[in-house]
Amino acid sequence: MGRVSASSEQPAPNAAPEMLQVEDILSAALRGWWLLALFALLGGLAGLGINLLQPVVYESGFTILSTIDLGNTGEMSQFEEDLGMEAIGQVISHPLLYQRVTAAAAKQGLPVGTVDLSRQASFERRMGTWRARLRGSDPRALEQVAAVWREMALADLLDAHEHALTVDGLLRKQQSLEACLNQLPFTEPSAGLCGPLSLRALQAQLRASARVIAEERAASRGLISAVIIDASPQPVVPAAPVLYRRGQMALAGLLIGLLLGVWGLRLVPRGKRG
After folding, report:
1. With left for phi above 0 and alpha for psi between -120 and 50, is residue 147 left, alpha or beta?
2. Per the domain annotation, does 35 fall within a domain?
3. What is the Cα–Cα distance from 182 to 165, expressed in whole angstroms?
4. What is the pTM of this model?
5. Distance CA 208, CA 79 (A)
6. How do residues 203-233 score in pLDDT, each as one tens digit?
């Protein structure tokens, strides 16, 4: 007698919780567009409101103009030109310059208490133009400190350029001494083409020249003679309020509002959508 096997059929598993798929979201968005628009508008306004609640930030600054003159140095690679231009930024952003500017501004009686160059200064380079920016809460102090900073930065740049020109002259002199050294025979005395200089005297001059070149290079602060600084006075940019990330804040609020609107579509009964 055959055994009756128990039915192996299992009850169908419960359906997964209802979730909006892509098609559902698109369909709901078409019906509830007003809800999405409302949330997006509220989100954008909230972003603008948060931005307006931030403290007002002002900006002032100045520009340094420069060009490359290859008359003395000959052809240079793009990398070498960039190094020469980057040296300008290193000079005008040096911490010691910041300290000198603050001390000079305070000595002139300027309101420097609200200005900290090390924290509030920023820079931007476009080709041969360096733009220095100074941001803070006191527009009068920003503009006046920026004027002192521009004057002292330009003086430092011109001084460094003079040392770079001196380096070039010393290098040419050193090359002539090395040529004389190569022409001198090993027996003394002999004047050759370089005057009555002995081998020992030439070596002493080369050592002294190398020391002076090292000192002048350090004083040039990385600047090269091919970089010509425009010494014409550039006006300091008047301090003006900065629209600090206002557009980004509004856009972020709008996107958050859209997401909340999509989520809100699930809470509105189907019969009330649209």
Report:
1. alpha
2. yes
3. 26
4. 0.65
5. 31
6. 888 888 899 999 999 999 989 888 888 876 6
